[in-house]
Design a protein that fits this description.
alpha+beta; 7-stranded mixed beta sheet
Length: 147
Amino acid sequence: MKNFFRRSTQPSASTPVASAPEALADFESILVACKATGDYTPAWERFANTYFFVRVNTNDNGAKTSDFRFHIFQNRQDGKPYISISEHMQNFSVTEEQKAIREVGGKLVAMLNPEVGIAVALSNKGAFCMPPDLVGWLRASIQGVKP
């Protein structure tokens, strides 16, 4: 799997190496662990390489979705535009006018308008919001990686 994330700093000697269970954990589990430690670096690395469902508005009539726009909503906390994504489809609903596509996090941040944030729908019906400036930082970090 291609690693789309570049660290901006060198890890300290005390940074633990990912264990086998963490390597298999989903993004939400890693996010919870990062919240407990305060170090979100593993979450950003996992985000960039994880496939997420994202709501889209489409003009396509068939089974294949190629002509679409992200479904944008205004975040009540900061008033900025966001898209909603989830690693698991059951974490959010899709209306009749919408479809959900599946895309890797690294590609999603590259596709987004710079003024748009990301709300990750969680299994507890909550959300983890990534404001536009954080999405921009992720985009810059990902674009700096050479294949």
